[in-house]
Known about the structure:
Elements: H1 14-19, H2 25-31, H3 35-67, H4 86-91, H5 95-126, H6 133-141, H7 148-158, H8 164-172, H9 189-214, H10 218-226, H11 231-242, H12 244-259, H13 263-269, H14 280-290, H15 294-318
Helix pairs in contact: 3-15, 5-9, 5-12, 7-13, 9-12, 12-15, 14-15
Amino acid sequence: MATAPLRTRPRVSASAEAAQPPSNAKGAARRRPGFRREQLSGWGMIAPAALLLLAFIFIPAILGFGLAFTNARLISPRPIEFVGVDNFARLFTDPTFYRALLNIAYFTVVIVPVQSGLALVMALLINKKFRGVNFFRTVYFLPVVTSMVVVSLLWLFMYRKDGLINEILSAVSFGLINGPDWLGDPNTAMPAIIILSIWQAAGFHMIIWLAGLQGISGELYEASQLDGTSRWQQFRYVTWPGLFHTRSLVLVTITIQALGLFDQISVMTQGGPMDSTTTIIYEAVQSGYRQQETSYASAISLVFFVLVLIVSAVQRHLTREKD
Length: 323
């Protein structure tokens, strides 16, 4: 009676066995003496930043959300009581809140295209190799490293009725033009804030544009030159498409910064004249600290958070990369 031969396991060469990782390599790595020490070192490095985020971001956000539905005040002998949506009902019937919304919308609609466009032009100018390019890069970026409070104080004196700007206008026009009271007139207060804000922050976004420009391959420009394209065609078909991700980043960051306008208003106009420069953040700070209505300020902050979230989501959707 014939029997079937037994199947034997194929022989594996020594080199193949050495190339195959052991099945318990992960467990062995965990059991090695220095693994737990590396874990502790990693958690130790993360801990300071995590504690700061917890103390100054997450806990205040949770407290603000809870206080928005109470009658809490900054200093009050009365106990805190739950009042539901009373703060939001008061907020949405406050004409100052709608004026703040209108002001911040006006500021954002103007500053986003103008500041991003100016920063792009500045980046294109210094994205060349010529003598003194580092000097111009430093000059363009210098306002960014200056505190907004200091910048606002300097421009506050320049915007005065007898300030530097009006003196220059009078000298250039030989006394025919008498400049207005820039910050005292409701028609010129917000444009004056816009000019200051663009001058101070354009250098920061110039650096972002510059990083995007330097990430575009030079071979694309060489190929376009061989095809005989003009400078405008190079910008339209090579530079602009290559700045897609940079463009989205710049637009989102400028929009968020514009919606959070506060420092210039607090230093220069305090929301005036006639609420022509008041903003949502300024109203929240005024309500929370000067009027001591912590709950109402929390409601304003919560509405502002939802507003920024919606605007960012819409902007991200419009600037997404389409297939």
